[in-house]
Amino acid sequence: MSMPSQRPATEADLAALWALRTRAVRTGCASHYPSEVIDIWSAAAPPATMPLLIRAGGGIVAEDADRLLGYAVLDAETGEVDAVFVDPGAHGQGIGSALLAALEAMARAQDLDRLFLSASLNAVPFYERAGFRALRERLVPHRSGIAIRALKMEKRLTLSGYTAPCRPPSPSVAPAPAAQSRACPPAPAPSS
Fold first, then answer.
1. Which of 30, 58, 119, 187 has the fewest CB atoms within 10 Å, i.e. is most exposed?
2. In a domain, 71, yes or no
3. Residue 160 has what pLDDT?
4. Which H or E run contains 115?
């Protein structure tokens, strides 16, 4: 199977995105959370922030032949990964990884230096494979009135492949941090 196409999410996608999220929570989280928690969690309505993030251009949809296979949402102002969900029938095809890579590219384009999220316990290995590191376990208050165990995780975005502009040495200016600037190479000797 070829990799599904990606496109920006739109407000018209919201109902389908939320239905996919509910299926993913019911299926993927069942091994890590009690059924009472999953029932309440999956019955919740979409958060008020979701359409705002989609409108701001933070949503990406993966689809194949007009079939929704997954989606991801980024708060591009803060770097918070709000969602990465893949249809349970499409797991293991690299769709989640491709969506997460697209969010990372979006974050880099916004000059963000990190991504962060609260990972459901079943999703921790996925995020670790993508380079996220666990910061701490926590109980995340959910708008449905329950608290959900999750792991706060982050990924520092390096400037891999980026060559900072060089700066000529100046005795009157303190050197800039290495990640932001580098010394210019010496000029070639004039040829005679």
1. 187
2. yes
3. 55
4. strand 114-120
User: Please, which residues have CB within 8 angstroms of residue 121's CB and are 6 or more apart in sequence?
Assistant: 29, 32, 33, 149, 150, 151
pLDDT at position 1, please?
53
- Burial zone of 161 (CB within 10 Å; 0-12 exposed, 13-18 middle, 19+ buried): exposed
Q: Which of 134-143, 147-156, 175-184 has the lowest mean pLDDT?
A: 175-184
pLDDT at residue 65, as a whole number: 86
Q: What is the pLDDT of residue 180?
A: 40
* 102 contacts 115 by C-beta, under 8 angstroms: no
Q: Count how many domains the chain has.
A: 1
**What CATH number has the domain bearing residue 19?**
3.40.630.30
Give residue 46's domain range: 5-182
